[in-house]
Amino acid sequence: MNLLQTFLNSRFWALVRKEINQILRNKQLIVLLTFPPTIQLLLYGFALNPDVHYLKLGIVDYAQTAESRGLISSLTENNTFTAQQYPKSEKELASQVELGKLTAGIVIPPEFSRDLSNGKTTNVQVLIDGVDANTAGIASGYIAQIIQQYTLQKFNPGFKLPIATQVSFLYNPGLISSWFFVPGVMGLVLTLIGTIVSSVTVIREKDTGTLEQLLMTPAAEWEILGSKIIPLFILLMGDVLLALMLGIVIFHLPFRGSFPLFIGLSGLYLIVGISVGTLLATLCQSQQQVVLTTFFTTLPMVQLSGAIAPIETMPTFFQSLSWFNPLRHYIAIVRGIILKGVGLESLWMNALMLALFAFVLLAVSIDRFRKQLS
User: Fold this and answer.
1) 128 strand-pairing partners
2) Cα(334)–Cα(258) distance, integer angstroms
3) What are phi and psi of 373, to 5 degrees?
4) Which ranges in 156-286 belong to alpha helices (H)?
5) Closest alpha carbon to 194 in 114, 132, 273
6) How far apart are the two ends of the chain, measured CA to CA in Å?
7) Is the distance from CB of 275 to CB of 369 less than 8 angstroms?
8) Can you say how many angstroms the Cα of residue 96 is from the centroid of all Cα atoms in its chain?
């Protein structure tokens, strides 16, 4: 009890209380801590989706038989393609693809049914708009697979493959793309918000001229900096819980791991973000400058983190470079805990790298802040 009373009467608690009161009076900061993370998480969670649906398909059916109509039905029944137009000729179909009115087009030859009935190979021409390489590749694969399955079922029902495969999808049986993106976006949002808020909070002392008043207070340097970091840390932990709640409630993320471990490592990453923001604040002279510098600094972190695109798809040099990105390790931790339910036995390397980043960046930012006060 005496220890608590001593703490409440200390200069450090007085500085912390002052910082909390400033934050509570700053309505813009409260909005920044709640509104943008919510919008970003919802926007990226719904918008970032590599799956393709309802691709516009044009069909030129020269055969006009039950078999050709069955093929068309197979192409459109799973909502991957929608039959938008039935051009009269191949030339008209190519023109529609060229104008961007169709994503893909298929030309069924007149001898389609006869050749298949006689066991002959028939050629079905497929035209695909290749401007979007990802969509074009997926569309091509879907069309080839659907045509193959249709011909096997229709004309070779007894055909059996020599090797049968049984595929099981672990951790995400439904292949829900938001389960991959949302944990990455959680790290992305915490990086942007944590870095920007901490840098603006520290730089505000320069803009308002209160840094000189802090120098005159009978408080140690660690007390001044700690009074700024601790309230921000508590507020940003609220953002962690908000992002997790949105992920579970809106996107139905399965939380399979340890909640204390998730909170502990998230807190460790928040220290990294706050340290980066504090360091940038000591290097800049105004809020406008620090905001621009923060965006310039965080964008490479996001691009090399694996939040949007898997790290395995990057060139070897950037895969190696990503090991020096704390966001990469935090996203691996979040996905491992939430989706796989693993613990430190699997995530110890990422946790160790995160602790190393937190220690180094916090030490450098404190040193820079101390020199600024001096």
Assistant:
1) 104
2) 11
3) -70, -30
4) 177-208, 211-216, 221-249, 259-283
5) 273
6) 36
7) no
8) 35
Q: On the CB side of 30, how many CA atoms lie within 13 Å of its CA?
A: 8
**For the chain, what's the residue count?**
374
C-alpha–C-alpha distance, residues 135 and 143, integer Å: 12
> In sequence order, what are the beta bridge partners of 125?
107
CA distance 179 to 252: 8
CA neighbor of 219 nearest in space, from 34, 38, 14: 14
Ranges of residues in the chain with a pLDDT under 50 are 161
Tokens of 184: 């990455």
Cβ atoms of 309 and 230 closer than 8 Å: no
Could you tell me which residues come within 8 angstroms of residue 222 by beta carbon, excluding any fewer than 6 positions away?
A: 366
Structure letter (DSSP) for residue 268: H
C-alpha–C-alpha distance, residues 371 and 374, integer Å: 5
E strands present in the chain: 55-61, 81-85, 104-108, 125-128
pTM: 0.79
- Give the Cα separation of 271 and 361 in Å (integer): 9
In Å, how far are 108, 110, 113, 158, 319 from 120, measured between CA atoms? 15, 14, 10, 17, 48
Could you report the per-residue pLDDT of 289-345, keeping only the tens digit for each?
Answer: 887 888 888 888 888 888 887 887 788 898 899 999 999 999 999 999 999 999 999
Q: Of the candidates 276, 271, 275, 253, which has an alpha carbon nearest to the alpha carbon of residue 330? A: 271
Q: Which two tokens stand for residue 248?
A: 């579970």
Q: Is 147 exposed, middle or buried (0-12, 13-18, 19+ CB in 10 A)?
A: middle
pLDDT digits (tens, 9 = 90+) for 78-106: 778 888 778 888 888 888 888 778 888 88
CB 372 within 8 A of CB 281: no
Q: Is 101 within 8 Å of 85 (Cβ atoms)?
A: yes
Contacts of 256 (CB under 8 A, 6+ apart): 337, 338, 339, 340, 341
**Kind plus residue range of the DSSP H or E element containing 165:** none
Sign of CA dihedral 287, 293, 294, 296: positive
Cα–Cα dist 61/175, whole Å: 34
Dihedral, CA of residue 273, residue 275, residue 280 and residue 281, to nearest 10: 110
